[in-house]
Amino acid sequence: MKKFTTIHDIENLSKTIQEAIALKANPFQYDTLGKHKTLVLLFFNSSLRTRLSTEKAAKKLGMDVMILNINNTWNLEFKDGTIMNLQTAEHVKEAAQVISQYADIIAVRAFPNLKNKEEDASEYVLKSFMKYATVPIVNMESATAHPLQALTDAITITETATKKRPKVVLTWAPHPKALPHAVANSFVKTMQALDVDFSITNPEGYDLSLDITKNTPISHDQEEALKNADIVYVKNWSSYNQYGQVLHQDPNWMITQEKIGSASCMHCLPVRRNVVIEDAVLDSENSIVIQQANNRTFAAQIVLKTLLEHL
Ligand code: CP
């Protein structure tokens, strides 16, 4: 593996999940693999889990870590041929090459603007770093994908499942702000690659891109969709068709104890309590969101290990 920008960069997903679970049992077994190697984490947006878990994962592999909140530095230009006499002070062509001299691996977080579908779909920030950096790139959540989260989710589901082919339902839940599609997109792609009984439920108007969902069943009846679920993955996203819009915040779609029954409840966090998921679920044994967040470290660690082995 030479980069990790999509879940499909993993050659053998099932094997990688098992390797991550083995790493969790013995996290320091490769503690010198990253000696004298540096990971630079570039954040265009906020983070709690991604930032700390990726740093922790790198340090367990013996790597040095440098973190840059890129909005605190020079305003980057991404377009070719721009006359840079306005707000942007440095072109990504120079920035990516310069950072590559300080880093052996660069990880990037850059959310979509949710205003221009084509611009977000172009993944111009992530792809500019892929084009101009001279070291491997890791996606820490881009405009359309969050593969580190999806690998984490696959690890968590594998650990949690008590039957061979669990029923996994991705459900939309309400949220006051317009949120990206990245987590849901990568989760869908990952579930499609695993041996699970997978479906999606969301209100009308909130269907994800058909390029992502493909043949995955989509129901607009949450109650029906959640029947007999083993694992309920809760996430909000803004409308894809009416791009980036919050069409409504129907509280009837909030996840409650009554709806979840005996299923395990997952969410990538952060979660707005009593808007997305009610307290009774998050405070119950059904909630595995803390275990899920812990697995962010082992997902990052197996990805960094694989990249280090291919440097
Ligand atoms: N789930 C997730 O990516 O969390 P952060 O945004 O806090 O990194």
TrEMBL record:
Family membership: Belongs to the aspartate/ornithine carbamoyltransferase superfamily. SOTCase family.
Record-linked InterPro entries: ArgF'-like (IPR043696), Asp/Orn_carbamoyltranf_P-bd (IPR006132), Asp/Orn_carbamoylTrfase (IPR006130), Asp/Orn_carbamoylTrfase_sf (IPR036901), Asp_carbamoyltransf_Asp/Orn-bd (IPR006131)
Name by which UniProt lists this protein: N-succinylornithine carbamoyltransferase
Record keywords, A-Z: Amino-acid biosynthesis, Arginine biosynthesis, Transferase
Domain Aspartate/ornithine carbamoyltransferase carbamoyl-P binding: 3-159
Job description of the protein: Catalyzes the transfer of the carbamoyl group from carbamoyl phosphate to the delta-amino group of N(2)-succinyl-L-ornithine to produce N(2)-succinyl-L-citrulline. Is essential for arginine biosynthesis.
Pathway participation: Amino-acid biosynthesis; L-arginine biosynthesis
GO MF annotation terms: amino acid binding; ornithine carbamoyltransferase activity
Domain of life: Bacteria
Any GO BP annotation: L-arginine biosynthetic process via ornithine
Taxonomic lineage: Bacteria, Pseudomonadati, Bacteroidota, Flavobacteriia, Flavobacteriales
Binding residue positions for N(2)-succinyl-L-ornithine: E141, H175, K235, R272
Reaction catalysed by this enzyme: N(2)-succinyl-L-ornithine + carbamoyl phosphate = N(2)-succinyl-L-citrulline + phosphate + H(+)
Ranges of residues in domain Aspartate/ornithine carbamoyltransferase Asp/Orn-binding: 183-305
Pfam families: OTCace (PF00185), OTCace_N (PF02729)
